[in-house]
Structure to design on (351 residues):
């Protein structure tokens, strides 16, 4: 079902309604495709829709007065179930298309066993997904959103202009991301000054990831949350904002690739009940090469976002939406023209 605000969006509440509608409709549009289970992209898109809906509810929580059945936690439980199936699809795609073709025949044979086990596991998880999407809890969740979208209820602050409140929505999320401890993995401090290592070896990178990989994974999740919230408001900003959003997407992608390599090993270790890397040296080498390559990409962004100017400019970009900035510039231009056309005595009196 499609919903329409019915008027030009101006307030905090208006944009909350648009965001909820957009992502609710997105995940609903892929529901049948997920149940048919013919194209893994359907599952991916439904999961993305639900995760963005969660971010929307969180980001606009001050304005939204949602019913019990349409709360963030309810959406999260469904999304988590979809996520388990999606993770298996990503594993299968990586093993089959990224790694299998580049392995020697003996290791390909072992990887086939892993893929066979993966398919069996996926069948079980899909049954859970199907049961979830046919459950009363899921029906209640959709009914909750349908009811709210038909007759939305807000808290009083929803009446505030979106321009007034925009920076307050984004800055807390960005600040939380910038304060994440994952940014300083591998760097050293001297009297408050950050010292970056010149060039870490593959072994040094592997050691760091072994000890602090989970922290980087958590930074990836924080980047994803920030990205989703920033994407809600791209229409209010210009090129600088878009550039920062692109960087955050890149961070999410790089750290995701690093994490995925560890997930692959963990899965295969369970399948073979042994350290698979000892049995598959070529596979182990490819994974290490991938992590090292991604680490070098990560270092460039780490340097960038630990720079004072970068962080300051990021905050300034959020504080100056292009819509508001254009109004300021127009006002300044009008003032300038007024001064230029004023009598000389008036100019002197203002100097």
């Amino acid at each position: 079902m499609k919903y329409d605000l019915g008027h030009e969006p101006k307030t905090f509440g208006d944009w909350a309604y648009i965001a909820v509608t957009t992502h609710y409709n997105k995940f609903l549009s892929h529901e049948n495709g997920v149940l048919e289970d013919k194209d893994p992209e359907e599952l991916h898109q439904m999961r993305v829709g639900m995760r963005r809906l969660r971010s929307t509810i969180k980001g606009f929580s001050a304005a939204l007065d949602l019913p019990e059945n349409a709360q963030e936690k309810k959406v999260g439980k469904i999304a988590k179930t979809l996520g388990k199936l999606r993770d298996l699809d990503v594993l299968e795609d990586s093993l089959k298309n990224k790694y299998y073709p580049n392995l020697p025949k003996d290791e390909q044979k072992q990887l086939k066993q892993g893929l066979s086990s993966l398919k069996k596991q996926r069948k079980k998880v899909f049954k859970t997904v199907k049961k979830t999407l046919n459950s009363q809890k899921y029906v209640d969740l959709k009914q909750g959103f349908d009811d709210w979208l038909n007759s939305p209820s807000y808290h009083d602050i929803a009446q505030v202009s979106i321009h007034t409140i925009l920076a307050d929505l984004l800055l807390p999320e960005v600040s939380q991301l910038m304060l994440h401890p994952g940014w300083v993995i591998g760097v050293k401090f001297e009297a408050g000054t950050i010292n970056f290592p010149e060039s870490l070896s593959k072994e040094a990178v592997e050691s760091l990831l072994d000890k602090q990989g989970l922290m980087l994974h958590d930074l990836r999740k924080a980047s994803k949350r920030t990205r989703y919230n920033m994407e809600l408001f791209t229409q209010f900003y210009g090129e600088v904002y878009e550039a920062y959003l692109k960087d955050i997407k890149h961070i999410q992608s790089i750290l995701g690739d690093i994490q995925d390599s560890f997930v692959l090993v963990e899965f295969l270790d369970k399948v073979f009940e042994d350290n698979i890397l000892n049995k598959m040296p070529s596979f182990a080498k490819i994974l290490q090469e991938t992590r090292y390559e991604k680490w070098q990409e990560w270092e460039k962004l780490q340097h960038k976002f630990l720079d004072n100017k970068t962080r300051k400019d990021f905050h300034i970009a959020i504080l100056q939406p292009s819509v508001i900035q254009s109004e300021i510039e127009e006002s300044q231009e009008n003032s300038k023209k007024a001064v230029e056309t004023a009598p000389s005595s008036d100019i002197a009196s203002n100097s």
About this structure: The chain has 14 helices and two strands. The first helix runs from residue 12 to 29.
